[in-house]
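User: what does the whole thing look like in 3D?
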Amino acid sequence: MRDNINLGYFLEVINDVLKEPEIHKMDNFIQHGNITTLSHCIAVAYNSYIMAVNSPFRVCLKSVIRGAMLHDFFLYDWHDKNKGFRWHGFKHPKIALNNAKKFFDLNNIEKDIIVRHMWPLTVIPPKYLESFIVSIADKTVSVLETFKLFKSKFQMINRKLALI
Ligand SMILES: [Fe+2]
Ligand SMILES: [Fe+2]
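Assistant: Here's the predicted 3D structure for the full assembly of 164 residues, as structure tokens:
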């Protein structure tokens, strides 16, 4: 049986991740266009959640949301090639995973989501359907953000995410 979209549940899982102060450092870096990495991760989490709910297969919704929130937790400006951040596309999933492990207790699905989200650029494919979902949502959101087409339904209020 399919789950229904429950934005209250989505916000509950996101806000639990946002309790960790380190996560807010992602707001100091631009991902695409004028979108910060934190906003990008929230957008990917939301799109992944919608895809997961609509999937004909059973997926772990909580892992999808948490993995997506942490998939780009690399904490540097990837546009600055002079600061040694070359090969960003290949390297950042492992950096994000190492950072995420320091602050969160991750299950195997969440770890796979983070470390495989750049597939097929990084050659080893994801192990779980949840990881494929986040990888597709990440690419979709990135294109929308680059061309300034992404409209968010959310805003941060006192470091918590809320529906607008
Ligand atoms: Fe990424
Ligand atoms: Fe991303």
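In plain terms: The beta strands are 30-32, 35-36, 154-157, 160-163. The pocket of fe (ii) ion (ligand 2) is lined by residues 40, 44, 71-72, 138 (CB under 6 Å).
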